[in-house]
Amino acid sequence: MNFEMNSAPFIQYAHARACSILEKAKKNGLKPDFETLKSPVEWEIIMKISLFPTVFINSAENLSLVQISEFANDLAPKFNSFYGSIPVLKAEAEKIRDARLMLVNGVRITLRNALSLLGIDTPETM
Predict the structure, then answer these.
(1) N or C: which end of the chain has fewer CB within 10 A?
(2) Is the pLDDT of residue 71 over 80?
(3) Which CATH superfamily is domain 35-117 in?
């Protein structure tokens, strides 16, 4: 298995990491303040996720999965950079923690959808 970039296991690992963070949080009733998401990597992830519908439509229109694969291969390292440098579970304030948890969940959902479209399993642990 190749856990380096541009591989299914690399993307699956990012998905599993997101699942792990959310499992550790085990929190319902989040009260995020999205204005607290100010770091460049947080905004890169938000902007990247916002492009997924367009990537999906273009892939469907062109009957090609290449764009979806490239999208997932670009989102996974952005997420890895995010959770490696920015505290999520130990954020300085609850509203920041909740906003970051919502961002993690957005990554999880987006990677799950991309991998599913590629016919690749999305394990929650690795």
Answers:
(1) N
(2) yes
(3) Isoleucyl-tRNA Synthetase; Domain 1 (1.10.730.10)
